[in-house]
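Extended Data, panel c. Modelled sequence:
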Amino acid sequence: MHVDHKPRLQRQASRDASQYKVYSYQHMATVAEEADDRELLFLTKVVEKYGNRIPRLIQDIRARHVDVDKQNLASFSGIFFMTGHKSKGLQFKQVLLTDDYTKLVDDAGHLVPLEKIDKQEINVLYVALTRAEETLSINLGLRNFLESMRKMQYTTQKVAA
């Protein structure tokens, strides 16, 4: 007999991961999976990869942080970490997308129906994708989406022939 000891997922309508009520790391990982929350799933991967080193890494990042306003971005030669929202209106030679954007392909490799995808999340993804001037490194989720589209196009071409 299976007994579920975990409290059920409690979240407000907001897309903010801080609105979840979690009780442990393991519970957070379960909530992330159940809700299919890309941001929370990304955070669980960070915890799995870096574990107890996270506080020290955060200290190191804060110690090296340089606050640069938008007017001076062009002359700054460092690495920028920012959300898709904050990148709006900016351009960068290279852009690397993280895996915390909305899921476009399910675990079976099928496209997620458009009505199940938050339009605002698609807009943020579009903004992030269009910030690169020279090089765009896409995340695994986007690679899976493009591969599904390629397969669908190939299948459509075979059926039409």
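Strands lie at 92-96, 132-137. This feature is highlighted in the accompanying rendering.
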